């Protein structure tokens, strides 16, 4: 008999929605014509809309769900701005100049986000807490230490190695064999960030419509006809910001974008004093395994939120939640009896070469592919895409603005290859653990 899951005791909606629920906007008809129609009202679409509206363009952001209901209110809120490929791979794939420019743009993008939060008075529980990355063995500890040194020397980012003997000053666990800290990364409440960005965008004149699924975009004369489930719009320009929620209305993009589930669990409030033992510096956390975990304290420092790859492709199976809980307990055995209050997933989006991008096809501009690291990249790349649409001549070109990502062979929306990819990463992680003598 097929195994059925009992109804979970925890909520399957994001913990973040308790303080910042996503809501439909008051119903309004669609404008007949706009300068720019943006598909998607997550961080990318809203940031682009904000820049365009302030430059005097009429803009509508169209979203098939409630604004923010995609990854932008479901994520871990860690301002990581990661690029998944290491320097050597970047050079091999894109050449030395672009590789260097991609790495340097991470610093600009993070500073752009922090400036945006400060200048727009965005209240989203942001704290520049720093991030601890845990090593599984001596080789990856050495590699973390070298990266920290390079960040200090080349980019002036405060970063340093933490030997295992000092680890408990940062994280109350003996699971890692030391690690590194970088102080330019912090955490925010992602759903509050989205709600605040929406407030700022609306105040700047961006029109935002929920429940407006775009079903087609057709070139008509020098502009476009955008058809949605709520009506039609004529737009001079179109920007697609659909990332992990891209659907079959854009089959060309769908073949280039693989949505993958990422899941987060939230613990109940921990007994007083336990947080100070487990997370004494209240930093954001990550680790070096390919299928590793990201975790953090809740903004009130009472719970731990623990995330990682989900592995499922449909329904709400219980196993991914249990998998996260097992790994949480492996790192913090003190949590063996902890109750979970929430477990939810969202879609991250991977291009084949794992680099976020701005690109163009038939005049439509795209800003997508944040590979699970869009809290920093999405506002930055959304804004750079807006500048591209404006034809901003003073703009220093973004290192992320280049050819469209390649299609994934034999892929039309069902990621048949994911079990193989996951098995490969599990194999690499087993090798890493064996090399570490574990
Ligand atoms: C569980 C999880 C944890 C994560 N943790 C982190 C983290 O800690 N740090 C970090 O930097 N990043 C993290 N990320 C990634 C980050 O959340 C995303 O990269 C970012 O939110 C992408 O923003 P976006 O605006 O491009 O996409 P989204 O917020 O996903 O918005 C896309 C929107 O497009 C809309 N859409 C799609 N198709 C259509 C259509 N046809 N018509 C109309 N609308 C459409 C969708 O409804 C959706 O609202 C995480 C993601 C997940 C899921």
Provide an overview of this structure:
By secondary structure, the protein is α/β, with parallel strands linked by helices. It has a domain at 15-127 and 188-258 and 351-435: 3-Layer(bba) Sandwich (FAD/NAD(P)-binding domain). 30% of the residues lie in helices and 21% in strands. Strand 7 (214-220) and strand 8 (223-228) form a beta hairpin. Helix 1 (43-54) packs parallel to helix 5 (190-203) and helix 3 (96-119) packs across helix 9 (374-390). The protein starts with 32 loop residues before the first strand and ends with a helix. The relative contact order is 0.19. The model has no long low-confidence stretch (mean pLDDT 94). The structure holds flavin-adenine dinucleotide. Flavin-adenine dinucleotide binds at residues 39-45, 62-65, 69-72, 74-78, 80, 213-214, 241-247, 249, 262, 264, 294, 307, 346-348, 370, 372-376, 378. Residues 35-386 form the FAD dependent oxidoreductase domain.
| Coarse shape | globular
The CATH architecture classification of one domain is 3-Layer(bba) Sandwich
Helix and strand element order: EHEHHEHEEHEEEEHEHEEEHEEEHH
Counting DSSP E segments of at least 2 residues, the number of strands comes to 16
Strand content: 15-25%
What is the residue-mean pLDDT, rounded to a whole number? 94
Helix run count? 10
- Over all CA atoms, what is the radius of gyration? 21 Å
Which molecules are bound in this entry? flavin-adenine dinucleotide
CATH topology of one domain: FAD/NAD(P)-binding domain
InterPro entries: FAD-dep_OxRdtase (IPR006076), FAD/NAD-bd_sf (IPR036188)
Organism: Pseudorhizobium pelagicum
GO molecular function: oxidoreductase activity
Protein name: Oxidoreductase
